[in-house]
Amino acid sequence: MNYLKKVVIVLLCLSFKVNTHAQQHPNIMLTKANIDAVRKGTETYPLLKESYSDIKQQADIALTQAISVPLPADGGGGVTHEQHKKNYNNILNCAVAYQISGDVKYANYVKDMLLNYASQYKKWPLHPKAKQNHQGGKIFWQALNDCVWQVYVIQGYDMVYDAISSKDRSTIENQLFVPILKFLTEDCYTTFNKIHNHGTWNVAAVGMTGYVLNKPNYVEMALKGSKKDGKSGYLAQINQLFSPDGYYMEGPYYQRYALLPFVLFAKAINNYQPNLKIFDYRDKLLVKAINTSLQLTYTDGTFFPINDAIKDKTYETIELVYGLDLAYADIKAEPFLLDIAQRQKKVIVSDAGLAVAKAISEGKSQPFNYVSQWIKDGGKGDEGGLGIIRSGSNEDQQCLLMKAASQGMGHGHFDRLNILYYDNNTEIFFDYGASRFINIESKRGGHYLPENDSWAKQTVAHNTVVVDQKSQYQAKVSEAEKHSPNLIYFGKNNQMQIVSAEETNAYDGVNLLRTSALVKLPHTKKELLLDVFFVNSNEEHQYDLPFWYKGHLIDASFKPKVFTAELKPLGQEYGYQHIWLNAENKLDTRSGYISILNNKRFYTTHFTSESPLTVKMLSIGANDPEMSLIADKSFMLSQPKAKTQTFVTVTETHGNIDPINETVDAAFSKLSDLKLLNSNKNGAEVSFKYAGKSYTYKINYTDQKRFTELVENGN
Amino acid sequence: MNYLKKVVIVLLCLSFKVNTHAQQHPNIMLTKANIDAVRKGTETYPLLKESYSDIKQQADIALTQAISVPLPADGGGGVTHEQHKKNYNNILNCAVAYQISGDVKYANYVKDMLLNYASQYKKWPLHPKAKQNHQGGKIFWQALNDCVWQVYVIQGYDMVYDAISSKDRSTIENQLFVPILKFLTEDCYTTFNKIHNHGTWNVAAVGMTGYVLNKPNYVEMALKGSKKDGKSGYLAQINQLFSPDGYYMEGPYYQRYALLPFVLFAKAINNYQPNLKIFDYRDKLLVKAINTSLQLTYTDGTFFPINDAIKDKTYETIELVYGLDLAYADIKAEPFLLDIAQRQKKVIVSDAGLAVAKAISEGKSQPFNYVSQWIKDGGKGDEGGLGIIRSGSNEDQQCLLMKAASQGMGHGHFDRLNILYYDNNTEIFFDYGASRFINIESKRGGHYLPENDSWAKQTVAHNTVVVDQKSQYQAKVSEAEKHSPNLIYFGKNNQMQIVSAEETNAYDGVNLLRTSALVKLPHTKKELLLDVFFVNSNEEHQYDLPFWYKGHLIDASFKPKVFTAELKPLGQEYGYQHIWLNAENKLDTRSGYISILNNKRFYTTHFTSESPLTVKMLSIGANDPEMSLIADKSFMLSQPKAKTQTFVTVTETHGNIDPINETVDAAFSKLSDLKLLNSNKNGAEVSFKYAGKSYTYKINYTDQKRFTELVENGN
Known about the structure:
The structure is a homodimer.
Chain A (H helix, E strand, L loop, with lengths): L2 H13 L19 H10 L1 H19 L14 H23 L2 H17 L22 H18 L5 H22 L1 H4 L4 H16 L3 H9 L9 H8 L10 H21 L8 H15 L22 H14 L3 H10 L6 H11 L11 E4 L7 E8 L6 E8 L12 E6 L2 E4 L20 H7 L9 E2 L9 H4 L5 E7 L3 E12 L2 E10 L8 E10 L3 E9 L2 E5 L22 E8 L4 E8 L2 E8 L5 E7 L12 E10 L2 E10 L1 E3 L4 E3 L5 E10 L2 E8 L2 E8 L7 E5 L3
Antiparallel strand pairs in A: 1-2, 2-3, 3-4, 4-5, 6-11, 7-8, 8-9, 9-10, 10-18, 11-17, 12-14, 13-16, 14-15, 15-18, 16-17, 19-20, 21-22, 22-23, 23-24
């Protein structure tokens, strides 16, 4: 336990001896002292004005509709599910509209809605669609959504508190919020004390409610766990769920989701107990988590879709609007955050949102500072991480991600040393993300589909080596949780940026070591993606390395042998059963290339190896009885039998087509003669020609000072 | 021959008795009298300023590069091909830069380039990549591109004319342009006299060169054909290639391409021989053709991709920049044209571009007036046409197209009564367009692929009925050219817009009659797409009606029987060999539905028929040895054996998902109980329920006054 944590816990112990901060309302995102300023800001600063206008419009629509609080019945995406979601949004929107406009009709709506809930809530049983081994809620099929509901609703209640009679407040508190507190801490005891994002939503709901209702006992439980011993609860979650770099082990999609209760509760803590200095906790962990969330996006705004992820999700998501506004207003006013706020096109109508909107209108915005970085995973930062390499402006950026992180619990994928490659604001080599149609009730209630386990999590669904057609750790989470990859090198020199990592436990007796780099050659606009995947075993194995690509295959060094009259699955299990084998080409040369046209630009991947490879062309869709899979494509480099195997690829980004003007530029790769000169445990040596010049690329796995070298050989 | 044409020909005969308009340079898009105004405009009006800035930038880049005039060797997309394309663009850009900046270095570049061509041109043989039965060029693999080259280059020459010494002019004219004129009129005699877009480019090249070089003989040939009898040449092409509504029979993609030489030559004619009143010719045909080109786009700017079409093509294409600028400046200053000009983001640096940019900067722009209309095909307007129905604003427009046009020569598809449906700025039921990777040399030199014939042109690649798994007219162009569909009805009433057409010759003894409508019900944001396809024969046939869709299948009224372990092609020929059969469902009910999620919105297609149908789920890709096909998907309604068959579908556009906020709205269709009450040669009667109300929809094929009726039945 470090010094700071000790201090905080001492402070905590002290603070609960005395009474909490004198109650005033509102006191979370909007605070009483700032109401006038925010109100003026909604008339002055465009982004705040538009944000409030949206909220008021929605509040006005809510007022035209009869209040509906149906008996909970449906799963995700169903009628009662969506109605209760709508209700918490309406409560919050009307509460904000009340504070800004001063019109009591909005407060009355919130009051009536809450009284309606209060008249029913205690009679509701556990939700009928609750699933086995998954904590059911009362309002929703899972308790998680009940917590989200409460996090929103308690903010709304806080904002209309002064407009409700004490009698009605008493009804609402005693018939609704207190029973909810009881449900969330007692019925959901296990979740409440879990170190997990469900736990975070739960403690945030309980803690924020505790503050607003002035129930310090609940606040203390929320911060330190049911037993108040600090082994669970909010602070334990900050300690354990995030790495020292602010990475959340489940991956960016869940990081974004987990972030909201963290920052909202932090804001409440900061307002009610500023002496706790929660934003400074664990070396300013929360602001790191917010910044890391932003760094885990590509320039199109989408989160890197590693692990279970809905791929359309961007930093426009409300969680990051909250996160960003608070980071800027309450923690550190970095001008590059304003760039993202502008792209989010909204701020929270709040003290923080006022600060952001004001700064933007004063012209303080600067381009967001995407950086290359190694983001450590694990509570102590020693469980691998993510290597992110970027090159180019935010308008046309190359980005390479290597995933060498821990398993990330149940939402993790078996995809160590997977790489993602982006360029031109689009995916080039991509991750499938989750197999799920979120909120689409016809697709298994919007839940994760069976294909999420059988396909999306499997190793072959990723751009990494598969050994013997099996997934890493034989797709067993419990085994995978025990180990994480090792970072070998992350750094740069004049010519390139490099990430290198190894995984030695995923397959018995097989070492996987991958070194990927973005390499700048003279007179090239775009850098080369140079990838050396060294696989080493004492036994013979089959090694497959797929590259899942977007776009269309337009050229290859060989004539593909296509299965024209019949398609069969590539294999039987570990995801192979979901792949159609479209073409198979046993090459007789040691090198070759494949060219893809994607978003009007060319990507040529040259490959070589110790011996000729088999190249397979694949598409997704076999054994998919509910037609749930997306028919994406890949080319797979395959070595049917070898002890040691090195897959070398160089992907050149080149040229473009202009379909409007019907012109084409640099359709052919300038790279040629790719050769693997040698490869072993100590290093690898590769040569190639580019635009008439000859280059040698060396990797020295054991030399941190000269880890890679690129030498021009004359010609 | 109508009165106007007689007058024009009389005028023509007269005009060539006297000398042509006194020579001055430049005198096509830029005219001497307007140079000062355009020059000032490039400093004043933003769109002209940016357009000139682009051109000057490209001209400046050209000046930094050595002039390269390689011996023609490569096909489309190859090095020499692209270099000669670049050269004509550079010539035109530098010529404009000379006129606006007055800097003689740009003129010298053009002079040097042209002298270089002049030193070589006569030695060049016919292009080595010329193809059999296709007129080869000297600079490019096909003469068509030589004509395009000349159309650009002669404009450039016209602009630098006064800056070149008479000696050099003499060299350029005698060693380059005169030989080109000779080549295009003598070696390419057949093309020059063809009523076809290749002919148009040829006569425009010859005619414009004739004007600039003051060679009236060539102008006269260009206008009236080699024999000067008016049976071929420019005026004959205007008469025959366009319908009275300005539709070009090959379809929008080629209409756009054909348009440029038409309007450029028209502009030259108008400047040199204003007495010909060319813009008034054939009841102002040219402006109709320009407007029709724009009406043949969807709100995303893309042309309807019927027949052979590259699908990315939009009205931003340079041909329509020329067309629009001239239409606005020289023909009629419609303010809605300015909207498109703004979306084109450029104007031609010219007299016309000045007028457009000035008007925009004066705030005269109005939203483009997309209209519902029947566009007649055929020189006399009696060869079918296109029915276009639109609903909603340009921001979120529903658009339905029924293709009931003539075959459209060699680029036509066998797709009569095909429908396309657009919504939400995207394709819902789409046309595959051409199978071609234009300018991608690795894909068969960028030419049309074999799959263009074997797949893209075939009936099954379209959303229309296929009889006995064969294409219309057994895919014989010569047969298909003999007939065209008949318009039965095009119109609207209070509730709906309707198009109905029949095709009676495509299949022996089978009548095809389709009636499609966009129908507005009370309280719906979006209209229903109501489609009744009546097929009638005395013999039994198999009838297939595919709907090629974008998006992902997310629900159906039945559980699809999916081929999970093996895929086989759907058939052997007429495109069926390119389709994988993914699922096959012999229904035991007469109606059902399929729901698609596309671009965050739901589309549910309800279907019914006289008897239960088989529904097949299909994807493209079988028998595709070069992996050239795009793996699009469809559901196909199929009746294995029937004499008379009515396919009724109602497609409801509903709800949305918001993946950023993870909400869903109206995921389920409100329509139900779709029934076919009766259907025969006289009409059809369909009933359905929508949002609790019951409706009957009647079609009376023989009653033009009450062609359709929609009656609400209470409930």
